[in-house]
Amino acid sequence: MTDFFEHVPTIRYEGPETDNEYAFRHYDPDEMVMGKRMEDNLRFAVAYWHTFAWEGGDPFGGKTFERPWHPQDTMENAKLKADAAFEMFARLGQPFFCFHDADVRPEGDTFAESKARLEEITDYIGLKMEATGTRLLWGTANLFSHRRFMAGAATNPDPDVFAYAGATVKSCIDATVKLGGENYVLWGGREGYETLLNTDLKREREQAGRFLSMVVDYKHRIGFKGAIMIEPKPQEPTKHQYDFDVATVYGFLKDFGLENEVKLNIEQGHAILAGHTFEHEIALAASLGVFGSIDMNRNDYQSGWDTDQFPNMHPEVALAYYEILKAGGFTKGGTNFDAKVRRQSLDPEDLILAHAGAMDTCARAFKSAAAMLADGSLEQLRSERYAGWDSDDAQAMLKNGTLEACDERIVGQSIDPEPRSGRQERLENLVNRFV
Ligand code: XUL
Ligand code: CO
């Protein structure tokens, strides 16, 4: 027990008219939307790293937060941190959390000690999960903070680092399975390069392919039913990352025969850094059959780095959920807040209110997306745009088309296609009726 969040009230749904800061305006976990409770639609998770492990440092200055569980180098403080985490979960009522090994336990002097500590703390966390009903959306390994990983984990030039990373992932999958985790995520934080001058790109890519195949084999050997997911990101910390974006990761998965084994965890900020919209990345993953889950946050559009802010623009978020709903909604995935309060937001209530506001933004956006889908106008206009492809001869052209047949169609029938409006502004107006 800590008294860190003691004075912060539990957040409950009070409706859009309330002036209580400590209430949900849009997120009612029991509200039925599209045949499911909102809690089951959105599947919110709190990220342990930003909320409990990050100390507020930036490239120009050190920690700004002072928490009762600092310094984070003893098991006693790791337990205090877990106590505080579950006290926060009780106030927010979100169903899930996510963690890296390094978030929950201090690094040991040896691999064996780090592993023993992970086992000890996940036993401790497991008891709290049982007592409270909070579940694990996904676990992951931190293969990017320690200096041993500075030149990559799976893609390191040193085979001992590759093996160290493999052993670490094994321990984290085991911990995830022990806690009943629904998925396991790999984000390639240092899987990339700083300079091509010292990098054998072909070799590193093959190492990454082998590594991922080993993860998938292990999953099947132990009978883990959750999804293995990759989280794309184009750069930062490395200058170039191999898991750049959805399209790049899909090409990689195809290359190693893993496209039916691995799904994608897509993050708003990473999409923006890659020069895409969030909805583009989701729609592409869904169309390729690899959509898994989302890391929800918001990126500063000017800064050019990964700002991991809490989402607060519901019209933007609505377009992302629209694509998720079109893909059938979440199955094993969910909405993980990979977001951190700003380093001047020092207080316990800042942590709680940041999440409460983000949950409201997402709920409001989700309901807008559901209404837009139920209305059907947007999909109708979209399918009208492609209606020409419904005819038998258009379908035949798609299946067995040849350039000669195209020539025959155009010249033989003297066709001169009539351009039609793309109706963008009308569609934008239509979306604005729902958000
Ligand atoms: C980093 C990032 C990670 C992953 C998990 O940009 O998004 O926190 O989500 O390793
Ligand atoms: Co993330």
What can you see in these coordinates?
The structure is a single chain. The chain has 435 residues and is an alpha/beta fold. The protein has helices at 38-42, 48-53, 75-92, 101-104, 111-132, 159-178, 201-222, 246-255, 268-273, 278-287, 314-326, 348-375, 377-385, 392-400, 403-412, 424-432, and strands at 12-13, 23-24, 32-33, 36-37, 44-47, 96-100, 135-140, 183-186, 192-193, 227-230, 240-241, 262-267, 291-296, 335-337. It folds into 2 domains: 12-375, Divalent-metal-dependent TIM barrel enzymes (TIM Barrel); 391-432, no CATH class. The strands form 4 sheets. The protein has an 8-stranded parallel barrel, surrounded by 5 helices. A two-stranded parallel ribbon has the order 1-2. Helix 6 (159-178) links the parallel strand 7 and strand 8. The longest helix is centred in the last third of the chain and has 28 residues, at 348-375. The protein is globular and about 80 Å long. The relative contact order is 0.11. D-xylulose binds next to loops.
Spell out the blueprint of helices and strands:
Layout: E1 12-13, E2 23-24, E3 32-33, E4 36-37, H1 38-42, E5 44-47, H2 48-53, H3 75-92, E6 96-100, H4 101-104, H5 111-132, E7 135-140, H6 159-178, E8 183-186, E9 192-193, H7 201-222, E10 227-230, E11 240-241, H8 246-255, E12 262-267, H9 268-273, H10 278-287, E13 291-296, H11 314-326, E14 335-337, H12 348-375, H13 377-385, H14 392-400, H15 403-412, H16 424-432
Parallel strand pairs: 1-2, 5-6, 5-14, 6-7, 7-8, 8-10, 10-12, 12-13, 13-14
Antiparallel strand pairs: 3-4, 9-11
The chain binds D-xylulose and cobalt (II) ion.
